[in-house]
Amino acid sequence: xxxxxxxxxxxxxxxxxxxxxxxxxxxxxxxxxxxxxxxxxxxxxxxxxxxxxxxxxxxxxxxxxxxxxxxxxxxxxxxxxxxxxxxxxxxxxxxxxxxxxxxxxxxxxxxxxxxxxxxxxxxxxxxxxxxxxxxxxxxxxxxxxxxxxxxxxxxxxxxxxxxxxxxxxxxxxxxxxxxxxxxxxxxxxxxxxxxxxxxxxxxxxxxxxxxxxxxxxxxxxx
Amino acid sequence: xxxxxxxxxxxxxxxxxxxxxxxxxxxxxxxxxxxxxxxxxxxxxxxxxxxxxxxxxxxxxxxxxxxxxxxxxxxxxxxxxxxxxxxxxxxxxxxxxxxxxxxxxxxxxxxxxxxxxxxxxxxxxxxxxxxxxxxxxxxxxxxxxxxxxxxxxxxxxxxxxxxxxxxxxxxxxxxxxxxxxxxxxxxxxxxxxxxxxxxxxxxxxxxxxxxxxxxxxxxxxxxxxxxxxxxxxxxxxxxxxxxxxxxxxxxxxxxxxxxxxxxxxxxxxxxxxxxxxxxxxxxxxxxxxxxxxxxxxxxxxxxxxxxxxxxxxxxxxxxxxxxxxxxxxxxxxxxxxxxxxxxxxxxxxxxxxxxxxxxxxxxxxxxxxxxxxxxxxxxxxxxxxxxxxxxxxxxxxxxxxxxxxxxxxxxxxxxxxxxxxxxxxxxxxxxxxxxxxxxxxxxxxxxxxxxxxxxxxxxxxxxxxxxxxxxxxxxxxxxxxxxxxxxxxxxxxxxxxxxxxxxxxxxxxxxxxxxxxxxxxxxxxxxxxxxxxxxxxxxxxxxxxxxxxxxxxxxxxxxxxxxxxxxxxxxxxxxxxxxxxxxxxxxx
Lengths: 222, 588
What we know:
- The complex is a heterodimer.
- Chain A is of the alpha+beta class.
- Chain A has helices spanning about 1-35, 35-40, 110-125, 165-180, 180-190, 210-220; strands spanning about 45, 50-55, 60-65, 75, 75-80, 80, 160, 195, 205.
- In chain A, strands 7-9-8 form a three-stranded antiparallel sheet.
- Chain A is elongated, with a radius of gyration of 23 Å.
- Chain B is mostly helical.
- In chain B, helix 15 (about 425-450) packs antiparallel against helix 17.
- The longest helix of chain B has about 30 residues, at about 550-580.
């Protein structure tokens, strides 16, 4: 018995050194040497500032300004709203928290899920409407005309991509708000659409952060 | 559903069928002590490890000694992992998440340790909010290797028992463990980690990154040595993600290709073990019969899950959403799914991860439709024999094979025999108990959790979904799977974060005990069966011998698996997923 115990502990300790430190640190060394950009999170910088990761979704929100010209604060939390100048990512149950990912865990047969969907649909439709009441994309007036990815929570809560259909609808808004021709935005969309891997694996999508950065470069803003 | 979706399914199956025999042949060589191409690389390390472990690798063990080594090895692993996870506050790199990380409470740690030891890898913690890099590497990654190796060596021992022509020996436990780690798990993990890193999976020891978004929204991005753990998590059908959302996280699974590769690498060892078995018993046809059984059940699950998810959920339809495929949109139930995987990529992953004991997820199973969510239930109810976990799948399947042989023998009125060895009362008793332990543990724990207020405290969604969450939690832990209807305790754990990390006592303890009981008891029975068969004389095949390598036997075997699973679990399944699949009603 004591012999067995000795071997068991010896082997686990040696495995811990070999597989728990040796293997991950070797991989880290190789990764940092061969793929430094990817191994460190595919971070995107603008100037000296890290604006995010190409692989991680984020919120493109602006402060919500009340009628008094100040940012609205509810229960101590400063309120924000989607910035219409930018493409918006999918709904996220964590507000795109990249340091604490979580599922929404909304059940398929639950009323809370329906309430969440209705909220997302209202937000999406409101974003499609200009301050003067005009529709940016005249073809989108109700739930059935919205692509599902735009109003369903992603799994990771930080999905970097949106569907091409979703992006095409948002393109109307972005073009109008920025005063750019729709064809220019659509051309940009085509550039930042990632196809299926090897032509058939997964689904095409548009990386929202990269697209928005390209938009800013185009507009020459900032 | 789309043509492209079905194309992915077909190519995936082809990739599995084509590649697995090669790995199977390689593994057969490893376990029969033949020279393989990696022998020059690892031969020296192997002998050095034997010396360090103070063992004689040539010393043969009977089933009792083999089982004893296994249990004590696991005990040592349990203690060491518990110590590592509980000492987070004094570990290096423990403040890389922005605050100094403390250990999770003892009950959460008990659950985590028990589940990682048993290849379950249930997550009552959120990786990036709870664990230090050191805990993830030196703690969890090590057990990802060790627990996978334990599963594989039990299968190898059982195969040796069936194939054995003389004596009682099943091999040497430590020799098998070392061979599994060095020649199988480590090389596959090494290659897989590199492939994942090349696609965008991260691998660093760095502080979490503070990003300043273009509209001024601040974002903290979690970092870490992800790819190395991701690789072994899949290769060893472990399934415990570096991050809370597991393989749905873009840093664990960056694109459509990695998604495909991750599914393939999960299934490759369980599938290869079948071919290894065929070579070790000297009959390719026997392996083909078992492979066919697994494959038919697998593809059935994929087809149903894909169709159900493509159809959309009742909540979506009630909200007025259009869930058909339209141009440039996936359609379907995208709640809890990632755009880059879409419906097909999520549905295949869902089935792959629940037929094996992997339990990694790339989408939220809780948000699957009733029918789509019933598929994981069905896979778990079949006791993880559809390819199954590394090793566990094969040894559990072989028990079902013995049961089918016995039932078939009764039907034709002859003494049942398998590969020339008589299956007698003793073996069938062991098989029956071995098969029934897991369902017993699952149902007992579910009943306890459902019947007590302490258990019901963990429920997140109302209606039948609440029961599904509970049932799935214990069914998954009993099968050592580890995938979850993650709403179960998910609103407290793991979302509590580190500063306020706290456990749900009953869920933590019950889950941990369920996982351990349903892991080690079946292992002991599997080894006992191996021991009982090892010493048996082989009688020549006669005219009346029931064949176990043809289509009839495949049908019989599927029938037995479905029947045992259905008889055991049907009443419970009726209360949860089946109700949901049949109704469009929304519950509060």
